[in-house]
Every structure is written in C-alpha cells, then in structure tokens.
Amino acid sequence: MRSSSRSPRWVPAVALALVLGAVTTPAGTAAEERPASRAETSPTGFAAVDALGQNGTTGGAGGPTVTATTTEQFLEYIDTTGPLVIRVQGTIDITSKQGVRPDKTIVGVGASAVINGGGLDFYRSHNVIVRNIRFTGAEDDAVNVGQESHHIWIDHNEFVAPVDGAVDIVRGSQYVTVSWNWFNRTDKSMLLGHSDAGGGQDTGKLKVSIHHNFFDGSNQRHPRVRFGEPVHVYNNYYKGNAVYGVASTMNAGVVVEGNYFESVPHPCYSAGGYDESGPGRLVQRGNVFTGAGTGACETNGTVTEPRTYYAYTLDPTTDVPSLVRAGAGVGKIGA
User: Fold this and answer.
1) 325 in catalytic set
2) Active-site residue, selected from the candidate residues 131, 221, 224, 226
3) What would the DSSP string read from start to end of 138-159?
4) What is the pTM of this model?
5) Are 163 and 140 in contact (CB under 8 A)?
6) N or C: which end of the chain has fewer CB within 10 A?
7) Which positions make up the signal peptide (predicted)?
8) Which pLDDT score is estimated for 335?
9) What whole-number distance in Å separates Cα of residue 51 and Cα of residue 172?
C-alpha cells in the first residue's frame, strides 16, 4: 500500500445515514413505494453476515469524514489507518491498482464522481464500502478483491471499459456483496476464483452475493466462478450478453434465481464446465428467459443454500428490468 507521512486533512463528520445514502425521491412517487432495499444504508447478502470477527460491513462508520477532490488527497486517504469516510468529488485520475486499507467508506458525491485510469485493490483488507463511483478506463481491474479480503460491499457503481475485469474476487476472499451496479458494455465483468489451480486457497471461500446489477450489453463473466460456494446470483437484469451470463466451474456452487435474461444466447454454463475449466454445480429457479436466441440455464448437482447464511426476499422476476434500470448505477443514493 502507498505510504504517507502526512496527516489527512479532516473535515467535520456528517451523519452516517447521509454518507451511506438514501434515495432522495419526492413523496408519493413509485420509487418511494419500493422495498427499503432500494435505499440501503447497509448491505444485504454475504457482506452483512457476522463472521471472521467482523460484525457485518460498516466501512468507515465512527471515523472522520473527508472529501477528496485531487488524486493526491484520494491516495492519502485510502492509505490511512483506521476508520474513515472518504467522499469523492469530481474526477480522480489514478494509475495501476491502488491499495485500500481496512475500515473505509469510499462514496461519490452526487452523480459525477469518477475514478479514471486505474482501480482499487484490496490485499488482506476488510470492512470496506465502495459506492456511487463511475470507474472508467482502468488499465487493469477496476476493483480487485484479493488475498483473503473479506466484508466488502460494492454498490451503486458504474463500470466502463476496464482493460481486464470490472470486479474480480479472488484468492480466498469472501463475505462480499456486489449490488445495484451498472456494468456498461464491459467485457470481463466479474471473476470469482483466479485460476483452475487455485482450489487450495479458494475452496470453501469466495462467498459472494450478486444482486440487482444491470449487465447491460456486457459480454461475459456475470460471474465466472471457480471453487466458491455458495455464490448467490439473484434479481439481476441480463441484457444482450453476447458470450454468456453465468459460468459455474471447478466444482463451484452457484444459486441463480429470480434473474431476468433478455437476448442472452447462453444464460448459464455448469455441467460441461467452460473454456478449459472443469464442471461446476448450479441450481436455477424462478428466472425469466426472453428475446431472440435465448437459451436456458444449464444446471448440475446441488448447492449449499444461501439461506444457511442469511435471510433474503426476492423481487418478482418480471419486475426486475424496471427496478434495476431505475435503481442501478450512480446518482441513485445521497452523499
């Protein structure tokens, strides 16, 4: 991680509810009547599970609040020890993948916060929230959760044109939730498990919830999974994904439910593996498949139920396109 000998320039803390966000919608509108999950101030799914000595994912709660308007400020703040809420304002240009220390909330201000050119890297980090950021032109991964990091919440972001993955969750990481993001014509959207040789590090880990994301004209890896179980993929909107939707490989266990697949020729791979990776296990239920050339989810075996770890409520699958279009991406939470 980048080291710094200077002390961060603190500004007065704001209420955590304001920083983490609530959808600001006039009274009486349709959005107001949606379930409270549309205005989450804390994660659902695996990032909310008490485990590994961590009580859910709270990010920088309890720490000071700062605002980063320059690259220098941003790099200093993410490398600070201790809880910190980092408000990102405007465009921050970075290179490569920059390390983020534990106990941070990184949240964009308004609808115009951008991290451009590089990405965020989690190396044995934990308890981090990343929300309301537009990631553009990352020269590698936009977000890399690796080396046994845990309790990470990636929510309400937009991913545009990373050279490699938009979100990778690898090398023994777990208790991660990826929610309400817009994968805007990305190629390799989300990889869980770094290689076919990674079973010793990844088996029994890579516990990830993926919900209410808009996979919009993105090509593949929504997600591609090796070894992890359970990976819970629910209430996502898949639209025009040319290569495939979900791939469960190398004995991974993936539950795919309540998703809406529109014009996706290959929604799910599992029994036959994918590329050079061997078969995985996949359970599908309650999904909708529509549009020209749409196939169905290939299933295989049984999978540990997500309810073993947390309770959840599905939205009606037919409502998913409108809900996700309205709610995914930046500018939908207050900060």
Assistant:
1) no
2) 221
3) -SS-SEEEETT-EEEEEES-EE
4) 0.90
5) yes
6) N
7) 1-30
8) 61
9) 14
CA 218 to CA 162: how far, in whole Å?
12
DSSP 321: H
State pLDDT tens for residues 177-226: 999 999 999 999 999 999 999 999 999 999 999 999 999 999 999 999 99
**215-260 pLDDT per residue, tens:** 999 999 999 999 999 999 999 999 999 999 999 999 999 999 999 9
CB distance 196 to 203 below 8 Å: no
Exposure string over 87-98, b if 16+ CB within 10 A, otherwise e? bbbebbebeebb
Tokens representing 102 are: 């534990």
- Sign of the CA dihedral running 248, 133, 170, 39: negative
Scored b (16 or more CB within 10 A) or e, 114-149 reads bbbbbbbbbbbbbbbbbbbbbbbbbebbbbbbbebb
